[in-house]
Amino acid sequence: MRILLFFIGILFSISTIHAQEAYKFSKVIDLDATPVISQGNTGTCWSFSATSFLESEIIRLTGKQIDISEMYNVRNTYPVKAENYIMRQGKAQFSEGGLAHDVFNSIRNHGLVPNDVYSGLMNNNTRHNHAEMVAVLTSMLKTYVGKPGKTLSANWRSAIDAVLDEYLGKNVNSFTYEGKEYTPKSFMEMTRINPDDYVNITSFTHHPFYDPFILNIPDNFSNGSFYNVPLDELVQIIDHALENGYTVELDCDVSEKTFSSKDGVAIIPSNPLNNLKALQGVYPEMKITQQYRQQEFENYNTTDDHLMHITGMVKDQNGAKYYMVKNSWGTDPTRTTFDGYVYFSEAYMRLKTISITLHKVGVPDAILGRLKL
Question: Are 315 and 322 in contact (CB under 8 A)?
């Protein structure tokens, strides 16, 4: 009996050592993407991630690597947010947040410009900080809704524009790029980006599958519509896109203790006691079902608090799949392990993905058919 217990102890020790083995990743898919940059002290991850996604699309479509302006999209989205807030008499969210389709709405109406044409940095600043600007805009809008002059000022739109001009810079009508004159819309045409080629997809059971619906999350101020698919198909879409050369825009929850930019991983251990230890070493992960995903969403344990950009796939030493997810928090080595990327396990992706955006050609044909696209 003692001998049997001795061998059981050895086997347990071996399995424990194996479970705690440090991550060893190897790349499987690594699609073209522009360098990681920082969104600074702003809540504009939606623009940074969607712009990064567009930059990869431009590389795929034209072979050109172009640094697209994130702040041009931000500058042209704030008036839309303000309009929504005013017209809803202050009963709507006005914040720095947004979603990927807000960038597509912006470029559909206002085109694209390079970052060196519109950086959004004023007065020789080198880092984005929107805290004061947002406080000023919020105060103005609350004042307008309160109508201290008994009627809404006829000049409120121009006043909001003046603040945005002061903090981000005046809008762009024309510019020169590589010796050629462009408008923002003609520049977008040159990049071959067509906003109508892109589709938003999610996976929740409170709406029918394969039908579009307005996803009721706080940052969806513009009432963007999302196609709804089963969870297994959501993962299938991401995998198929990456395997066929299409990167994917990601809206997700990063508020979990098992997401760590510093450690460079995002995982869902099957035993919560391993949550922190699993940031440094391989532990078994939870099997995420559609039901559990829905439960966590409806309990507000999964929220849309960050947008990022999926550009590839890696595997660990056990062959498990992880997604290469480009962040917008910079590349400071004290804050990141993989040069600004975070490797999401499939379990984390299944549980914490709110939605994805991608070129519709990146979606498998069978699913496109069910979506009637």
Answer: yes
DSSP-derived pairing of the beta strands 225-228 and 341-345:
unpaired
Q: In angstroms, rounded to a whole number, what is the distance separating the alpha carbons of residues 48 and 33?
A: 13
The one-letter code for the residue type at 321 is: K
- Class of domain 21-371 as given by CATH: alpha beta
- Band (pLDDT 50/70/90 cuts) for residue 14 is very low
Tokens 């559990």, located at residue: 292
CB atoms within 10 A of CB 319: 7
Q: What is the dihedral of CA 113, 109, 248, 203, to 10 degrees?
A: 160
Instruction: Please state whether beta strands 198-202 and 212-214 pair in parallel, antiparallel, or not at all (unpaired).
Output: unpaired
Interval 156-185: pLDDT, tens: 999 999 999 999 999 999 999 999 999 999
Q: How far is CA 311 from CA 30, 32, 150, 244, 365, in A?
A: 6, 7, 52, 12, 21
What average pLDDT does the segment 301-308 reach?
A: 96
Mean pLDDT, the chain, rounded, equals 94
With left for phi above 0 and alpha for psi between -120 and 50, is residue 39 left, alpha or beta? alpha
Output the pLDDT for position 150: 81
Rounded to 5°, the CA angle 207-209-215 comes to: 45
Pair 226, 209: CB distance under 8 Å: no
Measure the CA–CA gap between 16 and 19, rounded to whole angstroms. Answer: 5
Q: How many angstroms from the chain centroid is the CA of residue 8?
A: 46
Return the pLDDT at 6: 43
Cα(283)–Cα(125) distance, integer angstroms: 44
Q: Is the per-residue pLDDT at 7 higher than 50? A: no
Residue labelled with tokens 């017209």? 87
pLDDT band at 152, cuts 50/70/90? Answer: confident
According to DSSP, residue 21 is labeled P
Q: Give the burial class of 230: count Cβ atoms within 10 A of its Cβ; 0-12 exposed, 13-18 middle, 19 or more buried.
A: middle
Can you say whether residue 248 is alpha, beta or left, with left for phi > 0 and alpha for psi between -120 and 50 degrees?
beta
Domain ranges in the chain are: 21-371
pLDDT of residue 153: 83
Local confidence band at 4 (pLDDT 50, 70, 90 cut-offs): very low
For 262, what's the count of Cα atoms within 13 Å in the CB-facing half-sphere?
Answer: 7
